[in-house]
Amino acid sequence: MSGWFAKMISEREEKQMQTNYMIQTHQLSKAYKGSYVVNQIDLAVKEYEIYGFLGPNGAGKSTTMKMLLGLVQPTGGSLSIMGMPFNHQNRIPILRNVGALIESPSYYGHLTGKENMQIVRTLLNVPQKNIDEAIRIVRMEKQMQKKVRQYSLGMKQRLGIAMALAGMPRLLILDEPINGLDPAGIEEIRELICRLPGEYGMTVMISSHLLSEIEQTAAAIGIINQGEMIFQGSMQDLNSRRSPQLQIQTQNNRLAAELLWQYQPELTENGCLFPYMHNSQIGQAIGTLYENGIEVYRIQEKQRSLEEVFLELTGREVAL
Question: Which CATH number fits domain 244-303: 1.10.287, 3.30.70, 1.10.4030, 3.40.50?
Answer without folding.
Answer: 3.30.70
